[in-house]
Structures are given as C-alpha cells and as structure tokens.
Design a protein that fits this description.
The structure is a homodimer. Chain A has about 475 residues and is α/β, with parallel strands linked by helices. Among the domains of chain A are: about 80 residues; about 220 residues, Aspartate Aminotransferase, domain 2. Helix content of chain A is about 45%, strand content about 10%. In chain A, helix 5 runs antiparallel to helix 13 and helix 10 runs parallel beside helix 11. The relative contact order of chain A is 0.13. Chains A and B meet through helix 1, helix 2, helix 3, helix 4 and helix 5 of A and helix 1, helix 2, helix 3, helix 4 and helix 5 of B.
C-alpha cells in the first residue's frame, strides 16, 4: 500500500493537485502530439526495426515502481515511435484520421470505465446503443428501423456473429448439440472477400473447406451466375447452403458485389444474406478504433442464439425493463463501450456531415485516378473509375517500364512496391499499402478515409513514389 | 464539407485554438467528474428507468449537426447519468475503481488510434504486448517465460480461444474440415464456472450439451474425483474429452478450484488444462476495461490454428522481422490496443504495487467477513473465511429473521436482496450484486477491487443494507 500512497495516484482525492497535474501533463503531451500529427512537415513514422526499437528505450517491467516523471517520459517515447495515423499522408489503412469529437468521446468513455452488459452498469451507453442501432437499421431500409444488433470488437467478429446466427436460424439444435447434429453446411463468399469469413468458419467448427469462393469479375465483383451454379452444385452433393456473404467495398479493389442479384438468389434458395449486415463506422466514417456493428433483421434471434441466462449476471427480478440488459445477446461477457464515440460524432456532424466527409474522400480518389490513369510509368490494375476510395495501380520505374521479356518484367515489378514502401517508412514521409492479388504481382492499393487529406497530399504521394522508385 | 469546416474540427490545424479549446473543455469536464467520483458525498448513480432516461435528454441522431456547445452539453449529460464506477462505494462488479495512470494510458491509446495487427501500424504497442506477455508467462511459471499469447476483448473471448486451441491441438484437421471430421468432443468445467465456457462451446459448434458440469464442494471448488469419474464415463461412451476449464476465483463464491489435482488428472488423460491461462488484468489489477490476456504454453499453436495468410494484410516481403506481425494469430482482424494501460500501470506500480493493491482489497473482504459473521441478522452462504474478495451473505430483516415456516422464510428472503438493491440504486448510495445459486435463494455477493475503498466504506455498506432493509 505504501507504494500506491507514495505515488499518490489513488484515490484522486478532492483537490489532489498531484494527480490532477499528472493528468493535465499527459493531456498536454497528447495535445502537442495531435497538432504535430496534422502537420505535414512532421514524419508519418519514425521507423525502427523491432530489435532496434526494443533497445532505444527501457520497456521492461519490474518489481519496483517508476516515478511519475518516468511515466511521462514513457508516454512521450510511446508517441514518438507511434505511427501518426492522423497524418494527412498516412494512407496505409481504411481507418485513418483522428476526429476531434470522436477522440474526446473516446477519452470520456475511458473515464466512465464501464461495461455494456447491463442497463444497471451502463444506463446511458445502453440507451445510446439502442438509439444508434435503430438509426442504422432505418438507413439500411428495414421497416421502421426494426430488428436487432450489437456493437462488436471489429468487423471480423461481426461477420462471425452473422454466420453464427445464420446457422442457428436454420438449425437451432446446433446450440445444444453441436455441428454433429446438423448436415454438412456450406457458406459462399467472393474470392475477393475478407479473410474473416474463413476465420469465422474455422472457429465455428464449419471448416474452411466449407467456404466456397465465388468467382469475381475483373473489377472484383462477385459473379451471381457463378454463385447460383455453386449453390446448386452443393445441394446436389447433399450439402446445405446456409450463408452467403456479399461485400460492399472489398478490401483491395473496393468492389461492390451486386447485392440485389445476390439477394434474389439467396431468397430463391432460402439462404441467409440480406438478414444481417456488418457496418464498420471505424472505416469510412472515421470513428476511432474500434467501432463495428452487426445489424440483424430478425428481433430476438441474437438473444435466443447466444443467451445462457447466467443468474449471477442477468438477474430476472430487477426493478427496470430487462429488455435493456443486452449482454446475453453477446459472445462476450464484458463488452467495451464502443458506442459513445460514434454517437457523439453523429451529433456533431449530422448524417450530412458524414456524407460530406465520405464524398470528399471519394473525390480525392477520383483525382488520383484521373492523375495517374494516363501518366507515364503507371498502369491501373483494372479499368474504369474507382468503385470506392480504393485505387489499385502499378508504378513501373524506368528500368522496368521498357523491359520486353514479360516474365522478367513481372518478376522485377513484383519487387518494386515492397522496396518503395520500405523506403517510405525509412523516410517517414507517407505510407500506402501494397499486395499481390491472384496472378497479379504486387501493386499499390491506395485508400483514403482521412478527411484531413487534400489534393496536394495526393500530388505528394505520386511525387514520392516516383522519387523513391525511379532507380529500381 | 461545409459542415465539417463550419465546425472546424478537422484538421486540427497547427494552433487551431477552437479545436484545442474544445478538447481542453472536455478534459475539464472529465477532471471534475473524476474528483466527484472519488467523493463519498456524491451519488454512485443518479438512477432513472430506461424510458424516463430516454426522455430526460434529447439523445436522437439527426441529419443536421449540433454546435460544439451542444456537444459539451451531451458530454456533461452522459457523465451525469453514468454509473460512477470509481466511487469507493461501488461494489457491483469485480472491475471497479479508476486508476489514474491506467486512465491516462487509455486516453493516450485513443490518441494514437491504431490497430494491433501488424508491427507496421503499431510498432510500440506490438513490442509492449511482447514484453508484457513474456512477463506474465514468467509469473505463471512457464520455463523462461516461453510460450505465446494475445490480448483479447474480454475473458469470455479468451476462454473461447483456449477451447479453440485445445480442439485444434488434438484434431488439426478441424480447421479445414469442421466438426464433422472429428469424434464427439466433450469439455469439463465446474458447475460454478463462468457461463462463457458454455457460450464458447455453442459458438464453436461443440454444443452446450458437450460441456459437462463437474460438482463443486460447499465452498464452490471443483471436486477432482467427480471430474475423473465423468472423464472416464465420457470415454466409455466413446466421447473424446479434450478440454478442462478450471477456475481461480469463481464469479460468485470466489472459489479456487484445486488446480494441481485437476492438472494431474488432465495429464493422465491427456486433456488440455495447464496448457493455457486466461488472465484478466481489468479485474483485480484494476486496469481500465477491457484488458484480458490468453497465455498459451505452446509456441506457434495460435498462429497455425488461426492464420489465413491474407496477402493483403500480412505481406511476406516486408523489410522487418515478420514474427512481430501478430495479427494472424487472432480471430479479430483489427484488434484494439489494450496493452498500453496495463503496461503503463505496471511501470507506475511495479509488481509489488499490484500486490499491495490486491492485498488491500483482500484485507477489506476479511474485515467485512469478520464484521458480519456473528452479527445479528446475517448468515454466511458458506462457512469459513473468504477465499478471495468475494463475501457471500444473506441479510435477514427482522420481519424475516424469526419466521418459523422455513418455506415461507426462504420465499420472503429471496425477495429481500432485490428490494434492497433497487433501493440502493434509487438512493444512489452504494451498489452491490446479488443472485441465487443452485437451491440457495438470492444472496448478496460482495466483491472489492477498488483500492480507493476503506474500512469505513465497508461499515457504510452494512449500515446501508440495514437501513434499507429493516422494514422488509
């Protein structure tokens, strides 16, 4: 106890100046970092290799406490070597930027330090989740915004929930009796879909071989006729198609699967598809990480699928309306409060504010596309305008551009993006993702979700790629 | 775009006074809330029924943006109706209190706004996770701290990971082929264990009927002989026992299962038990929510169990040591940074600081036990000193205490705790949990994890129970 009292951090006594000064000092460090993050003259990243970074600071944990001054030093060091995800030239992921209202809301969430499982312990946050999920369902277009939903720790878990619900809807006995009580189930998804569909199938005991990948067209959209063919084929083998995952904005191409055509096929074959939707506000809506919702059309299904009615958590003899105790819908017991940052940002921007912010990112993507589509040394991975903010392209340095041996050219081109990316990180000037796809060698995948980015930042990216890649 | 610029929240331009003032105002609101939270003269909760709370404020989301002043009003309203989980008289959960260093660290985590999936996007946090997991494995006692692990969104998910790994270890083909490729698996857990074991079994396609509940003794500890009997019985039926979950501190009684005896049985029958451990620093270590780790003894197992090698996320031709790209071990894709608050608190307290803090909570529990064990009107749910901070007891108001009809007495007693709890919330003076267990009617379960609590707060709890319950 001596050590706690010595540091005098708890309790934060009324007027405890030392505690309040400490918190304010951390705030000042953060405010300086925020200003710096948006400043184009600072580095996106101060990159060091793992072993080097391990040695640049003392990160070890020991028996004895450090002083509060040491703690402040650790805070500064942590931010010094962090990626500035808010930097207008950080294009590495679809979750970039730092919204000031979202940030404030996340700070407040930490301060409230509670759990989503019952109304009793999170009255306001439970209601805000209720209000927000309803609003989201209205936007999806479900009648009167009816249905259900939950905020989960990321899109992969939301997708897993969807698969879990689809299976339970078709075979409710699976909850008690397991997969051995049901016929062989098969799920379908685009060959361009997110890897979480297969991860979910592996975890749920369905198996990755029961996830059938449907062909996509050259722009990355699932081909409905191939889907129907594979459904019929699966049925002929005696398998039971139970789940189709369609994607609105694939990871690499940003492709939108033809949702209506797929929904029609699913309706015809009685397969789960438009019954749920994963919606990640931490992506294009730029809500701080993490914020992902699964919306479900049928009321009551999540509850019956997941509930275990633990009497020590969900007492049935409490004084208030127990339908607000949403915790038993979840796979989690404790569930982090991810709702407040979305709700507060929505209040600050309104729906039209989100719309404007996303439109701006789309505009920047189109600007990039127009800039490079006919530019010497660039080749687009697929024809036509960007389908979302994703712009996929190769940069061919002069030494690769004119090679006549196609095999050699592809071999060399495959190595270009990784080298340019490594150099971007060494210089710390910008970051953009790359990957191969199918038989296509490594290409850049540009995505834009930071409303702080401008046309000039796009110009900079292109100049930087050329500067760093011209000798390759 | 006009609306974003109008609110001028993004970008946070260098010296953008409006943005900085807004953030500082939110900080001031939070600092005032913190001081208030530790002040015993304030309410733990300003309780309102859900419908009433929905009407006390405008919580709706609309097309148009609100002003920044409205946003500040929303922040104040949210905290006004929140539970003060840091209040020294809030005993409702095992995650209470508000550690100032942990809070500062969580604020900083929000400010860094990144993801745990690769070293590329979270260099410092990935290293801190590495350092901290190793330290935790050393404390568990695994040789040289070797092994693996991951921070997951809560203990229920950590437990699900453990079950997933145990299944994969025994039948690696389950990943591709699903549960239909393996014999009927059965898991074992105490009848007093957390409901997440059954939830996990339902989700993983194992089924809740394949979770066999082992008898606990009167103090809530799993009975090893019953475990072995049920394992042998399951084998005789042709089932495959693959997983035993033992608990160190059960939810209600705080009981510690006899880990050594259970481990011996598991070793003998080749069943997963001491191979992994779920450790929730957001409970007794009082780290802000959420912070849960799964520690795994075998290196490489998590990776092979969960990896999908999505080339768009885990490029294999990057410049640094790719063993630091830990994301493919996880079921999640994006993973929230839960490590920094634990790491920074550990630095601030040292291991001995955590020890002192937990010892203090244990001391308070023993004080409570000693105070009520012979006090008139109280009855302990089981004999003997508390096994952890949990103290389980009935309060019998005078009107119930002397009833001779046992059935009537139990019926009346069952209603006492819910009424007292509802009154606690109405008055906002304190909160403590209650529940029935087996054939035992509703009793109070006291737990203490807030180092800000004192002997006087325990005295207050008892006085308050008597004040609110004497007329029942």
């Amino acid at each position: 106890v001596a050590y706690i009292l010595q540091n005098n951090l708890l309790p934060a006594l009324n007027g405890d100046a030392k505690t309040m000064n400490f918190l304010q000092e951390v705030v000042d460090i953060m405010l300086a970092y925020i200003v710096e993050s948006f400043d184009r003259s600072t580095k996106v990243i101060d990159f060091h290799y793992p072993n080097e970074l391990l040695q640049r600071n003392n990160w070890e944990l020991s028996d004895e406490p450090e002083t509060l001054d040491d703690i402040l030093i650790s805070c500064r060091a942590t931010l010094k070597y962090a990626i500035k995800t808010a930097h207008p030239r950080y294009f590495n992921q679809l979750s970039t930027g730092l919204d000031m209202v979202g940030l404030a809301a996340d700070w407040l969430t930490s301060t409230a330090n509670t759990n989503m499982f019952t109304y009793e312990v999170a009255p306001v946050f439970v209601l805000l989740e209720y209000v927000t999920l309803k609003k989201m369902r209205e936007i999806i277009g479900w009648q009167d915004g009816r249905g259900d939903g939950i905020f989960s720790p990321g899109g992969a878990i939301s997708n897993m929930y969807a698969m879990l619900l689809a299976r339970y809807k078709m075979f409710p006995e699976v909850k008690e009796k397991g997969m051995s009580s049901v016929p062989r189930l098969v799920a379908f998804t685009s060959e361009h879909s997110h890897f979480s569909i297969k991860k979910g199938a592996a975890a749920l005991g369905i198996g990755t071989e029961s996830v059938i990948c449907i062909k996509a067209d050259e722009r990355g959209k699932m081909i409905p006729s191939d889907l129907e063919r594979r459904i019929i084929e699966a049925k002929q083998k005696g398998y039971v198609p139970f789940f189709v995952s369609a994607t609105a904005g694939t990871t690499v191409y940003g492709a939108f699967d033809p949702l209506m055509a797929i929904a029609d096929i699913c309706k015809k074959h009685d397969i789960w598809m438009a019954n749920s939707m994963t919606w990640n506000p931490h992506k294009m809506m730029a809500v701080p990480l993490q914020c992902s919702a699964l919306l479900v059309r049928e009321e009551g299904l999540m509850q019956s699928c997941n509930q275990m009615q633990a009497c020590y958590l969900f007492q049935q003899d409490k004084q208030y309306d127990l339908s607000y105790d949403t915790g038993d819908k979840a796979l989690q017991c404790g569930r982090h409060v991810d709702i407040f940052k979305l709700w507060l940002m929505w209040r600050a921007k309104g729906t039209i504010g989100f719309e404007a912010q996303i439109d701006k990112c789309l505009e920047l993507s189109e600007y990039l596309y127009n800039k490079i589509k006919d530019r010497e040394g660039y080749e687009m991975v697929f024809d036509g305008k960007p389908q979302h903010t994703n712009v996929c392209f190769w940069y061919l340095p002069p030494g690769v551009r004119y090679l006549e041996d196609k095999v050699e050219k592809m071999k060399r081109l495959h190595k270009v993006a990784p080298v340019i990316k490594a150099r971007m990180m060494e210089y710390g000037t910008t970051m953009v993702s790359y990957q191969p796809q199918g038989d296509k060698v490594n290409f850049f995948r540009m995505v834009i979700s930071n409303p702080a980015a401008t046309f000039e930042d796009i110009d900079f990216l292109i100049e930087e790629i050329e500067r760093l890649g011209q000798d390759l």
